[in-house]
Amino acid sequence: MVKLSAELIEQAAQYTNPVRDRELDLRGYKIPVLENLGATLDQFDTIDFSDNEIRKLDGFPLLKRLKTLLMNNNRICRVGENLEQALPSMRELILTSNNIQELGDLDPLASVKTLTLLSLLRNPVTNKKHYRLYVINKIPQIHVLDFQKVKLKERQEAEKMFKGKRGAQLAKDIAKRTKTFTPGAAVQQLEKKKMGPSPADVEAIKNAIANASSLAEVERLKGLLQAGQIPGREIRHGAPEMVEEEEETEENGVVHMEPDIQMECAGGENMRPEGMVGVHGHLEMVKAVEEVKLVEGEKKQADDDESEEDMDEDSPVNGS
């Protein structure tokens, strides 16, 4: 993708088109956002933004001269508000092959009183019921819609359909808008939909980690979690009695793991095993088990050394 910079605007092709309008050619640069258009110095009647990656029709400075905007083959799904203030002379808007979904997404165009030609061909919105009559009603000054002249009969039908309280209610019902991103809203909605692990599953996972006594056991638990299984269930169901949680974790040296595991399980996405036992938690668990094994090994070695010394002192020397 290429940023729409002042340098790009200065270097782009500029010419007089067949209808004798001054045109700026910004076609095919894969531009994602409309910006820095003040660099045009309002010297163009037509700007061609075809074949880019633009998602929102917005970001225009005041361009009094601009009459035609070619936006076909982009990804536009939203139309900005107050376009009439930035583009007071816009007559023709080509939005062919974009991604406008709902009739309500077209409402901002109603304020552009100079708009007489509009193309929405190959947009999902054209498949909506009453699409053409809705647009004619919303933009009554439109002369050509989707390269077809608006007939008097269509204007009368549109006026009749959306007239009065019933018509206003119908327009309100079908003028749904595409939902847009609100910071934090998606996270809250996702949290509502999450199906986190049950308290029994959390308990089982904690017990399984607390009872791990070797690296081989740790690797086995990791494999079970990655396979989507709860290893603690087997341990919990197979054991006659379970010792208190705090005592078990203290004996196995993994007390510091409990908050991490509890946090990951409570917020893990769709109960993914990797979310329940994160990489950091796994490394901490392995380190704790290794420390326990090292301490036990040193203690055992010390006991063996003491027993050998005792045997040397007690054993009789040959010839004594």
From TrEMBL:
GO terms for cellular component: small nuclear ribonucleoprotein complex; spliceosomal complex. Residues 292-302 have a biased composition (Basic and acidic residues). GO terms for biological process: RNA splicing. SMART domains: LRR_SD22, LRRcap. Residues 128-146 form the U2A'/phosphoprotein 32 family A C-terminal domain. Residues 292-320 are annotated as: Disordered. Keywords: Leucine-rich repeat, mRNA processing, mRNA splicing, Nucleus, Repeat, Spliceosome. Residues 303-320 have a biased composition (Acidic residues). It comes from the Eukaryota. It is found in: Nucleus. InterPro entries: Leu-rich_rpt, LRR_dom_sf, RU2A, U2A'_phosphoprotein32A_C. Belongs to the U2 small nuclear ribonucleoprotein A family. Involved in pre-mRNA splicing as component of the spliceosome. Associated with sn-RNP U2, where it contributes to the binding of stem loop IV of U2 snRNA. PANTHER family: U2 SMALL NUCLEAR RIBONUCLEOPROTEIN A (PTHR10552:SF6). Identified in the spliceosome B complex. Identified in the spliceosome C complex. Found in a pre-mRNA splicing complex with SFRS4, SFRS5, SNRNP70, SNRPA1, SRRM1 and SRRM2. Found in a pre-mRNA exonic splicing enhancer (ESE) complex with SNRNP70, SNRPA1, SRRM1 and TRA2B. Contributes to the binding of stem loop IV of U2 snRNA with SNRPB2. This is U2A'/phosphoprotein 32 family A C-terminal domain-containing protein. It comes from Umbra pygmaea.
